Amino acid sequence: MASPTNPGGRTRQPSLAQLRAFAAVAEHLHFREAAAEIGMSQPALSGAVSALEEALGVQLLERTTRKVLLSPAGERVAARARAVLDAVGALMEEAEAARAPFTGVLRLGVIPTVAPYLLPAVLRLVHDTYPDLDLQVHEEQTASLLDGLAHGRLDLLLLAVPLGVPQVTEIPLFDEDFVLVAPKEHWLGGRGDIPRAALKELDLLLLDEGHCLRDQALDICREAGRDESTPVTTSAAGLSTLVQLVAGGLGVTLLPRTALRVETARNDLLTTGYFADPAPSRRIALAMRAGSGRQPEFEEFAAALRRALRGLPVRIARG
Question: How far is CA 306 from CA 106, 118, 132, 145, 316, in A?
């Protein structure tokens, strides 16, 4: 097979068409299916992959009469090819956004403990103010969102901060207090001056591992002096289930203020209590890749979103 450097001393660079063809074959391991996906004829696809192999000087595929397999080199190149294609796609989107802000696709990632309570305001804002923006929402846990942002799968995140992640810029939106939710007749129900120390011995129900709200609640408990050996019952994948467990008398939990009305309004088996100042709280922000070409657009979006959220029981951050 030819070397990637020809006798004339010039390095042969693979084309985007070749990378796109190979990435499709690597995904489907089938030439006909790959050709159909990218709208290319099967002979042209095969020729593009062969040209890529010649340009790189390595065999990428093992072809048999029955199937197509990736060679060891092909497996490594496939990951790189997909990263290059993703980066080129992101570049085109950045250029599109620079030409015409608030048009095209905006892939917004949102954590589950924010999505049900803030998305109505976000969707209303986009509909009324940015009608040419194609908003695509992805609800995932924080680690998955950050991975999506880093790899270009997502453009902007709506989540709890601080993240402490390099190359991620946070744009604060608001701070909100946590509220104690307990079974009806609980001795802390109805109080507005609950000391944080009360968390030391309570039967606390939290979300499953991976939810940032769980980590925040545990941090609050540690600050209150709760012994880490004091058991915490983890029983729920979402806040709705968590609240039902509280209503069933299994313990108490902490809810952010924005979730309180939605999760407790119709359940007469619950009571709530508020902490004495300064109440434990969390900060919600937008997060983007540092140096993003869409930073001015995202900052303007954050300012508009702060205005749209003024009716919520939160403390709006300064722009």
Answer: 18, 11, 20, 22, 6
